[in-house]
Amino acid sequence: MMRTWQISTVTDAARARIATARLAAAFGVTPLERTRLASALSGRLRQCLTKGGTWRLTVRTSGGLLCAEVASSPAAGEPPWQVAVDCPDPVDGADWTGVADDTDVLAEALLGADEDTSLVLDKLAEQEELVAFHREELHQTNQGVLALHAELDAAGRAQREAFAAERAARQEAESARRRLTFLADASAVLTTSLNHEEIVSRLPELLVPEYAATVDVWLFEDGDDRHPPAPHPAAAVVAARTGRPQYAADHPGGLPGVDDQPPSALHPTRPLLCVPLPTRRAPLGVLTLTPPGERWDPDDAVMLIELTRRASIALDNARRFEHNRDIAETLQRALLTDLPTTPGLRLAARYLPATYGLNIGGDWYDAFRQPDGSLITVIGDVTGHGLHAAVMMSQLRTALRAYAVDGGSPGVLLTRLHTFLHHLQPDLYATAVIARFQPGEPVLTWAAAGHPPPVLRDPDGRVRTLDAKPGAMLGIPLRQQIADHTVPLEPGSTLALYTDGLVERRAQGIDPGIERLAAALGAFRTEELDADLDSSAERILDPMLSDSERDDDVCLLLCHIDSRTARVSVGS
Q1: In sequence order, which residues have a C-beta less than 8 Å from that of residue 178 and are 6 or more positions away?
Q2: Degrees (nearest 5) of the Cα angle 303, 222, 551?
């Protein structure tokens, strides 16, 4: 079905539009679609009227569609304008004849159009309410998303803060562990030495450059002298006087347990930390440090003060040790015997105190005559070291000389010393070798008590160890009778008595050292020993001590029978 209208005026356009709307209603087009059709058609007709001329509106139904077409009349080459809407079910009795062109029909059509518009407006209102509802839902959703983002941001910040706190705590723990490790290692380094000069030299090596840029150690030579000739910062003098650490700079240090002082006139541009070296009596000196950077971390300053305290203890121990060692060495040397001069028998002795550790005072040698003219030579070693060992050595030496006045062989004298030491000092032991040269007899009588065996060089250069069964150590809780041993002597023979410091090495034991001593003694010619026994003793010590740590005393006593003498004439 099809209908056509010629349009050249506004009235023609209104009538055609209304007729089209009524046809759409008659053919079951929904109000929304009718409104869309009317709006589109009105807009197109308004354009056509603006252009002028005559236009033709054609409305037809085809395939369930209601199509409207506007074209110029006559055709001017412009393609026609078309619009189509669905019309699935035409209203019963609807046909093209029902559409009138009079004025009443126009009014009725306008009224129907208003009804359609009202329906559309109602529909639009419902859609507006639905849109508002969805807009509110979207707003609430956005608010929830924003709240969730805020919570996530807060959780992220809390997590970052927790990570930062954990990292800071881990760094602080690592720094504390590093300080404690350094303090333990540095303390071990300082306390292993008993030489105060070595301890002083190690302090800069330990502290520079990690904990200090420079280190100065001011030691008081006299306990009452606080003003040595060399200039020292005023803060160091205050630290020495008060016994408290001082910090000298143009700004407060904020260091725990440290007093602030003005900047030093000697070092005005550098902060100074002056820490006294405390002891139980008075400070030993002052340690003055400059920081490795702008200033010290407070925890580093606490560690430095503790290290200084430990260094002070090490220095005090070293000075006490050196003092006791000097006393022991002085006493030891004072008690060593001036060797007697005997025709036909030459004696040479060497005593070297230990240079490492407090091991001075236990070794001794002696040589003296008995009333019958025999010459007693002895070498021994008291267990223990230091001043106490030196005192006990002097007592044994005196006791031996007293026992020898009554006569007696070496074995008898050692047996008496054993009893004497056991009752005098039950917890102290000693070793000794006694050799007796008798006048007019080419025989050597000797006895040993727990001591390294004597070494005898024959005139032909052969060397043997006198290792016949010795007695046990002197002073042990055991009754013993120490036996004598004899060996023939010929002119040119040399007897070597020594202590274990000459031959014993920790890694090798004592036997290799005895073998080296025998080889060194056997390398001499008899003429050399006759000419200069003292030089021969020195030549023995040099190679024997080349690998020694010198942690024990060394005694060597050489007894040489002059090869130019047919018979020893001891005591003549």
Answers
A1: none
A2: 70
Q: Nearest-CA neighbor of 2 among 44, 49, 41, 57?
A: 57
In the numeric block, the tokens 């639905």 are attached to: 130
CA distances from 513 to 81, 152, 502, 510, 538 (A): 129, 81, 8, 5, 17
pTM above 0.90, yes or no: no
Q: Of 95, 75, 71, 73, nearest to 83 (Cα)?
A: 71
- Residue 571 is predicted with a pLDDT of 41
Other beta carbons within 10 angstroms of residue 402's beta carbon come to: 11
E strand map for 87-177: none
Mean pLDDT score of the chain? 85
pLDDT(570) > 50: no
> How far apart are alpha carbons 464 and 521 in whole angstroms?
10
With 90 as the cut, is the pLDDT of residue 110 above it? no
| DSSP string for 31-45 | HHHHHHHHHHHHHHH
| Tokens linked to 255 | 């260091």
In the block, residue with structure tokens 């200084």: 308
What distance in Å separates the CA atoms of residue 270 and residue 213, rounded to the nearest whole number? 10
Instruction: Look at residues 214, 216, 211 and name the one whose alpha carbon lies nearest to residue 183.
Output: 211
Q: What pLDDT shows up at residue 109?
A: 54
| Nearest Cα to Cα of residue 61 among 17, 12, 18, 94 | 94
Mean pLDDT, to the nearest integer, of 442-455? 94
**Contacts (Cβ under 8 Å, ≥6 apart) of 503:** 452, 510, 513, 514, 516, 517, 544
C-alpha 343/C-alpha 157 separation (Å) is 101
403-447 pLDDT tens trace: 999 889 999 999 999 999 988 887 789 999 999 998 888 899 999
- The DSSP symbol for 98 reads G
**Cα 86–Cα 90–Cα 94 angle in degrees, nearest 5:** 135
